[in-house]
């Protein structure tokens, strides 16, 4: 009676011998784990160092007598700048996000491959343009071009508070600054949304199309639910860029120290970052501490925005399948 012998796998571990990682593998694993841990902790250390620096240098301005402060009582002084920072960033986001989603959808689901590759490259290139170039474009090209539009908006919709008031004769208004910010954050939001849309499972898209959905219905049923956390992340990243933008706003906006929702008037509220850039070279003594204290306010606003974004993303992760 013949017996069959199964061929032995040459890479199989001999019976009785435990599979042990090599010393080289253990060493590489230890090095990689150490580098990853140090890199992750360094982010927390840097954030803590920045917060400590801001609190330390802002303390004199927060604790001094308002009469000793060169810019007056701190909270009354910084409130218009905090409002202008959030107001300009929100306006920019309202204009940039729908356009960015449309461009990302066109690149990922509508455009031919060659055209999509070219558009994707142009979008990525636009993100590398320095902010001072956007500022020059805004003050020399955009502001004069939009003045007739502002006049029409004021005449037709002057009953609406943002379009009320006197129209600026130079075009250097809050709306112009918001448009410049929208153009600046547009490539960031577009690039992230494009990558998120491309990660949509093909089976989900094909299943929707197989059930008779049009391409737009498929996008609503499959792409948007899956990509919503990514869209929110992209929007919050763009919002963070808009909140901290300095040079473009300082060059375009004709600033003031008042809280106003009017978009077409010549004296719109300044932003914290632009105000620091404009006043820091001439500041001294408690003036420097007061400007740094306003930077602390901007730091807190940015941190709060990012924490809110993470909370929204976490609440949507289970629904979309994103981690």
Automatic annotation (TrEMBL):
Q: Which residues form the ABC transmembrane type-1 domain?
A: 82-309
Domain of life of the source: Bacteria
Q: Which InterPro entries does the record cross-reference, listed alphabetically?
A: MetI-like, MetI-like_sf, Phosphate_PstC, Phosphate_Transport_Permease
Query: What topology does the record note for this protein and the membrane?
Result: Multi-pass membrane protein
Give a Pfam family name: BPD_transp_1
- Region entry Disordered: which residue ranges? 1-25
Q: Which family does it belong to?
A: Belongs to the binding-protein-dependent transport system permease family. CysTW subfamily.
Stated role: Part of the binding-protein-dependent transport system for phosphate; probably responsible for the translocation of the substrate across the membrane.
User: NCBIfam families this protein is in?
Assistant: phosphate_pstC
- State what protein this is by name: Phosphate transport system permease protein
Q: Which species is this UniProt entry from?
A: Propioniferax innocua
